[in-house]
Design brief:
Strands 1, 2, 3, 4, 5, 6 and 7 form a seven-stranded antiparallel β-sheet that branches. It contains two helices and seven strands. Helices cover 19% and strands 46% of the residues.
Amino acid sequence: MQLTRYEVEVLKFMLQDRLTQHKWDEFLSTCSISSYEFTGVGYFLEISCPKLFLEKETIHKPDILGKVDEIEVGFILFLEGNNITLECHTWGDGELPATVRDLNFQITQYNK
């Protein structure tokens, strides 16, 4: 399992104040997906990177809003040590299909 184009875009935007370009490049070249959990209204994707150490933190700003099949979604990052967990969740009552990571995802708004 690999990161999707939109997951890379979300991670880069949300981590821009925490990782230098060198650390970002190192992260992309050495990271791997260690777990994935689909919840019906989103998913949790755990990413391990042995060359990265991050203080424990939850990042929900800057906001990134997107759409998958007309369902609005948002993101939260959980950082701790060598792991980053990306949460993708719906806004509202919509449910996402289990194949959400394979669908056409569109980022609709960045809010700082």
